[in-house]
Amino acid sequence: MSLKAIHVLFIVASTLLALGFSGWGFSHYLSSEGAAVDLAYGIGSAAAGIGLVVYGCYFLKKLKNISFL
Asked: Which residue of 2, 7, 36, 38 pairs with 29 in a disulfide if CB–CB is 3.0 to 4.6 A?
């Protein structure tokens, strides 16, 4: 497995983790015991997830001529 493939794998895993944590933060905020910090977690994680998607697209576009093997 090449360095490019491992990098893409980590970007995908990080994106899923950030978006999952964002969903948890928003759902916990909407529950009866939610606090403002949960909303901040949700917004920050959503921003990180969106940033990771943008970075992943940039990375794949930049290294499109390099093989995954």
From this structure: 38
